Amino acid sequence: MTTGMIVEIVLAVVLLVILVVSLLALRRIQQLRRGGVDVALRPSPPLDTATGRPSDRGWRTGVGRYRGNQFRLFHVGGLRTAPRVVLDRTELEIVDRRPPRDGEMHAATATVLSLRTRGGTWEIAMAPDVLTGFSSWLESIPPGRSTGYRQAS
Questions:
Q1: Which of 11, 20, 77, 104 is the one with CA 20 to 30 A from 153?
Q2: Residue 125's pLDDT band (cuts 50, 70, 90)
């Protein structure tokens, strides 16, 4: 193989990586423009075997969108067009809220909510303005319908 061929192959790989990153960034911008909000989500945190405390790993950055009784979460890093997680407010319970722990890559002003649904338990991190909207959405179910919603004190 000549040096010219190697350079061409490297350039092709670099262009391909730039194209993929650009498509992912464009997808995120489109989701945010369609009424999405930035969140980070993970399943109930596993315990760190060394310390016995909840792990700070497993967070996925995503875009959340409201649709009726559902809060749909799309992961930013994927090409999948369907939501990865769908939270139904009729079966959603906020179990706890806390500030981010050391080692978690959330803004200091973010709030981490522990949520319980029929499908399992989750942690979701969101900025204060997103939390206000999320809380309002949870509380705004029409009269006569039970949400099962309870706020952690």
A1: 104
A2: very high
pTM for this entry:
0.69
The phi, psi pair for 81, rounded to 5°, reads -90, -15
Q: pLDDT digit string (tens) for 71-97? A: 999 887 666 778 888 999 888 889 999
148 close to 90: Cβ distance less than 8 angstroms: yes
Strand pairing category for 60-67 and 37-43 = antiparallel
Cβ contacts of residue 126 below 8 Å, gap of 6+? 37, 38, 39, 40, 110, 111, 113, 134
- Give φ, ψ of 87 to 5 degrees: -105, 125
